[in-house]
From TrEMBL, chains A, B:
PANTHER family, per database record: 2-AMINO-3-CARBOXYLMUCONATE-6-SEMIALDEHYDE DECARBOXYLASE, ISO-OROTATE DECARBOXYLASE (EUROFUNG)
Protein name per its UniProtKB record: Amidohydrolase family protein
Superkingdom of origin: Bacteria
Pfam families according to UniProt: Amidohydro_2
Keywords, comma-separated and alphabetical: Lyase
Domain Amidohydrolase-related: 80-377
Length: 427, 427
């Protein structure tokens, strides 16, 4: 097996929602109230919903086209971005250039948990837009290139009954997962342990869909010192996946829903062997704590393995200990267009780590596509013959894709000259 | 090398302070105000200081003698405990039975950070008792068996100037370390990042003493769900050591004090390779964050290794990845008399993990005593010839030590019959 023979399915990427996304997915009577992007005098594009400026979807969320000295939290404009961030046709070209067969995309403007719709005052309007978002994901973004995207939807967190309904609705349309908060109690919602979310979890099991819990949502679970720099957030984000696993495993959410599948998106994998050592030793050593609420004769690590997909971008130590994690439980990610992405050298990056860790061909296939496809219930070859799904075959289609990083100003100049990033009604 | 040839120096054990500890270490005029233990009608022993009941030092803190079905948070009495918890002569016998040459003991009643003295209203009185505590540690507990204990003191957190003074005072008396809070900001104190603690950190560097940060102090750094069971605390405690390391490393406390040495006591080691992968990738990938506040041309993991001793009781995954942690940075712990201790089978437990991980003899020596002794600046053979310091030699002296676990009630019966655990003035 060579690097070019790998098949890459990434279950953690992101899009920057385009301003015209609701055009075809919200009934006419609501069209006047869909979220809009307004470009201000400084050239910054700003989403506005229900009269409130909600977010500017740029800065750190879409750095893929820029040199790293331009990364930061400054707001910006669509025309400064690499078009693959918001344009599905350009995205597929960028995937080809990186040898990536398929991708699951998390929201940006909407928030991991549909925050933008949940926080608006008018919840009826929020639900219309949330459903419009999901329909855009399914019927427009993913439908544009069958076989290239694993659909991920959102649920209305403000009402668990509606959330369960929405799971069923999008499940029937072929959606494979929903994004949710990793530590909902930190944002003022009931915790996973509370039982409040059970109807939604049941719906996910019924539809055989995955609960995708992306890092970042739970930053505030750690009480950071006031003086802490942004490094704290970026470094410690993955430690929070262990906290989430603990909530689910000892909650005991996972034991109440034998069919529940949870992806710890971007959570990393290297913390897991240590966590397994700890929970299994704890379980046997502190047996006095588990008289009534047992793990059914299994070790906590075994229950974890039955339910959780551990996801990583780069993780040399975790790969070295893959036998302790369970090679069936590991899935690779690309993270386009965030700062941590390995695009456009993902095949080189992943391949080197596999070789350094001594992975076999079979292990590489499990980690790069087999585990993700099994877990998300998604057939990678339904639309793409296997021989056309490889890194080598996809890259061969992308010889004309320029992957050079360029300053924002240059992107703006080029994009605006070509009419890219300027949407109807933005001014 | 055989199991019996190991030399075990544990840098994490605990004593249950005996009620008469201030008798010889507080001037006569304060003797009427020293903390006292009162035994109530239910037979529970309770510390009282400045008119306030402060803590009952039992339950989970001293389970070493009991079967695990009696573990729990219930308060108890001295006479229910294995006497090695509070009696130095019995402790040394228990150490011999476990093949342990030397031990560093954390407080129980006083709290990791001398909480009991810090929380009292009268700070002058608190300081008298804190100094009395330190003098008892140095001049009584440790002095009773030269070469068997590495002295650990406390500092008055309510005044950093006094804390620095106390470091110098006990440093001159031969103390090798102080215990402190791993995340002081969570308890309402200034954070490590604030600079407030710098005079104390400078004093530690001047005295070449170690800052020992034991897990547990920072539990509340994680916002746990209201429904979380005690499993959360016990499992996640080690994740907090990563948070502490982040505070110190990016603070940038460690870089301002090139001589500062920090032990992450009971923090475990298996999280470190993942943390190193993360911080080193972050540092190189997010170079835009580090223009002014660099690591001096080194990787963050290299700075960690220069300052931090990583400590563990049982850690199969961490040992397997010791080459990624740095075998010079790992130290073994016993944790007598807590629930997580491996006493009295520590040699068997540690030896099996070393064998499973394929450790060489040289690596075993580093992990079991060399690293700890170098780090704490403590010569293990000053009072004990090396050939008498081994597991085999020490155990040979302890043939008469009964290590059987017995119910509390049996301990009480036996101890009280022998006059053990009943101190002057307790009733």
């Amino acid at each position: 097996m060579r690097k070019e023979d790998m098949i890459l399915v990434s279950i953690d990427d992101h899009f920057i929602e385009p301003p015209d996304m609701w055009k075809n997915h919200v009934p006419a009577r609501w069209q006047g109230e869909v979220p809009r992007v307004v470009r201000n005098a400084e050239g910054v594009d700003q989403w506005v919903f229900q009269g409130q400026a909600t977010s500017t979807p740029f800065g750190m969320a879409a750095t893929v086209g820029w040199p790293s000295d331009q990364w930061g939290f400054n707001p910006g404009s669509y025309s400064e971005l690499r078009p693959g961030c918001f344009d599905v046709h350009e995205r597929v070209r960028d995937m080809n250039a990186n040898g990536v067969l398929a991708s699951l995309n998390f929201p940006t403007m909407a928030g991991w948990n549909a925050r933008t719709f949940a926080e608006g005052e008018d919840k009826e309007l929020g639900l219309v837009m949330l459903r419009g978002y999901n329909d855009w994901v399914l019927d427009e973004w993913c439908a544009a290139y069958p076989g290239r995207f694993i659909p991920l939807g959102l649920v209305p967190m403000w009402d668990v009954g509606l959330a369960a309904e929405e799971v069923h609705r999008i499940g029937r349309k072929g959606c494979r997962s929903v994004s949710f908060l990793e530590t909902p109690h930190v944002q003022g919602y009931p915790s996973f342990l509370s039982g409040y979310w059970d109807p939604m979890l049941k719906a996910l099991c019924d539809e055989d869909m995955v609960l995708s819990l992306h890092i970042g949502a739970g930053f505030d679970v750690i009480r950071r010192p006031a003086e802490a720099s942004v490094d704290h957030l970026m470094v410690l984000a993955c430690q929070i996946s262990a906290i989430t696993a603990q909530d689910l495993l000892f909650g005991p959410t996972l034991r109440r829903f034998p069919g529940l599948k949870v992806a710890l998106s971007e959570g990393g994998i290297g913390w897991i062997p240590f966590y397994f050592d700890r929970i299994d030793r704890h379980y046997s050593n502190q047996s006095w704590l588990h008289h009534e609420d047992g793990f059914g004769g299994r070790l906590p690590s075994e229950v974890f393995k039955e339910h959780i997909l551990a996801c990583y971008i780069t993780d040399p130590s975790g790969l070295e200990l893959r036998h302790r994690i369970g090679v069936e439980n590991i899935a690779w990610e690309c993270d386009y267009p965030h700062t941590d992405t390995t695009w456009p050298e993902s095949p080189e990056f992943a391949w080197k780590e596999f070789q350094d860790a001594g992975c076999t061909d079979a292990e590489i296939h499990k980690i790069t596509w087999e585990n993700a496809c099994r877990f998300y219930g998604w057939d990678p070859f339904a639309h793409t013959p296997r021989e056309q799904a490889t890194v080598g075959a996809l890259r061969a289609q992308a010889a004309d894709v320029d992957t050079t990083r360029m300053p924002k100003e240059e992107w703006r100049r080029r994009n605006e000259a070509a009419g890219i990033g300027l949407f109807e009604g933005m001014r």
